[in-house]
From TrEMBL:
It comes from the Bacteria. Residues 1-205 form the DUF7691 domain. This is DUF7691 domain-containing protein. Pfam families: DUF7691 (PF24740).
Length: 206
């Protein structure tokens, strides 16, 4: 079974502030923009909804109002997908062909490539196993992770320091070509974020 990433460039603080904003006009706007998507999700998750999971619309309202959230952890996935819709609305989708689809521990493999290049401030695997911002409940799927602007700035500094060391020594870390390509895609995401003050990256694995 394969997985995919959805990765967004956005103002992280502004996006997180949408959680619990309790703005009825905003809720109406989001509902209108995702009407067909909400209906498709309800059809896809019909069996879980019959067992008590919130509908996509109910989950969206709970995220925008900051609750209430179902106490059943098996229902938490709906809030994750609702949060992803807010990110889709607020941000720009970033190319992720190195990660969609992917299998097994690929995200961890790319993290190893980043570490080989001295980059430890961010982790691709966080997109697969991280948690959404509080008060949203954790769900295994979709996985959610965030690269804050400060972490991105530090990661790029780390990469540039390694790059200078490689230029001086003439010895680059031995990485497989597909890992190098994926690492370069991550660096491109970070450079796009660095060019816009306050911007970061939020990613989802599903």
């Amino acid at each position: 079974m394969s997985s995919s990433l959805s990765v967004y460039l956005l103002d992280v603080a502004a996006t997180n502030a949408l959680i619990g904003c309790r703005d009825d006009d905003f809720l109406t706007s989001v509902r209108g923009g995702f009407r067909d998507d909400l209906a498709r999700d309800d059809d896809y998750h019909r069996h879980e909804i019959e067992k008590g999971a919130p509908t996509a619309d109910e989950a969206l309202r709970a995220v925008i109002y900051g609750g209430p959230f179902s106490e059943d952890r098996n229902h938490a996935f709906q809030y994750g997908y609702a949060y992803r819709r807010l990110c889709e609305l607020s941000g720009s989708f970033l190319p992720n062909d190195c990660f969609t689809p992917h299998r097994g521990d690929w995200l961890s493999v790319v993290d190893q490539g980043l570490r080989a290049l001295g980059v430890t401030a961010v982790s691709v695997d966080d997109f697969g196993h991280g948690a959404p911002p509080a008060p949203l409940p954790y769900a295994y799927t979709p996985g959610c992770g965030e690269w804050a602007p400060e972490a991105i700035a530090e990661a790029l500094r780390q990469f540039e320091a390694t790059k200078r060391a490689v230029d001086e020594s003439g010895q680059a870390p031995p990485l497989e070509p597909e890992v190098v390509e994926a690492v370069m895609q991550c660096l491109d995401w970070m450079r796009q974020a660095e060019a816009r003050p306050g911007y970061g990256v939020i990613g989802f694995r599903s």
